[in-house]
Amino acid sequence: MRVILVVVLVCALLILCTQSISPEEIRQKAIESSKNIETCRFKMTMKAEISFSNDSKVVRSSMISNVNGAYDFANRRVYMKMVSTMSSPEESLQIESESYLMNDTMYMKMKFPNGTCRWVKTEVKDEAWNRSNQIKQQVDLLKISEVERLPDERVNGTDCYVLELKPDLDRFVEYMVKSGQETPQNVSLLKDMLKEVKVREWIAKDTFYPIKTEMRMVIEMPMSLSIGSLKRSLSMRQVMNMTIELYDINEPVNIELPSDAESAILIQS
After folding, report:
1. 88 touches 49 (CB < 8 A)
2. Tens digit of pLDDT for each residue in 132-173?
3. Full-model pTM
4. What is the torsion angle, in degrees rounded to the nearest 10, for the CA atoms of residue 50, residue 217, residue 99 and residue 119?
5. For the chain, what are the domain ranges?
6. CATH code 2.30.40.10 for 24-266
7. What is the DSSP annotation of 198-221?
């Protein structure tokens, strides 16, 4: 009987200790631990639905992108393969791309629906690393948000803390510009258009690495169209859902440029 009581007491203490960590502590530990990530693989899914409407008609289109890739920060190398499918009432189009960021040069292979492929390359600055760095983007979201702890979950067998993030909208717009999702010229317009931002991050309990992020963003914009004496009021609504997962963190990765990319056409940035 005493043994059972001791086991129950130990379990209760473990639960209390686990629950005692605050959302702010989880946030700070995740920010610090992310500095120790030297290599990883990642997968990302982006779904965007856009609708244009007037008083009598709604036209919808969508895009789904699936991305797989790997990072080697010590050697400044990134690999990424993306398959995007764009659909509208008239047609559906699929585009594949493959890219390598090697030190200060970006190589990209585009594969078009007719089967043709082309390698191009361009010189990049440090900003390109920030824009392609999914880990930095997850950490930046943690820095600009209020955080609330949700019930713990498991991601691919890893026990995780779950945080709901409530980003400051002004700082979130700045984050989108820094991550390359928007241009500086669109800042004031985007602040008016941005209607909803929801973010959740899964932080591994054993390492405090941010191993998964889900984001939902809603943008709405009214428009006016004038053709002669005809005036129409339109509205645009875009809903984007994105999921990013990191795995094989600090496991060896080998990112080598394909031989046919060495003859890539140089494009001046």
Report:
1. no
2. 788 888 898 899 999 999 999 999 999 999 999 998 888 888
3. 0.82
4. 30
5. 24-266
6. no
7. EEEEEEETTT--EEEEEEEEEEEE
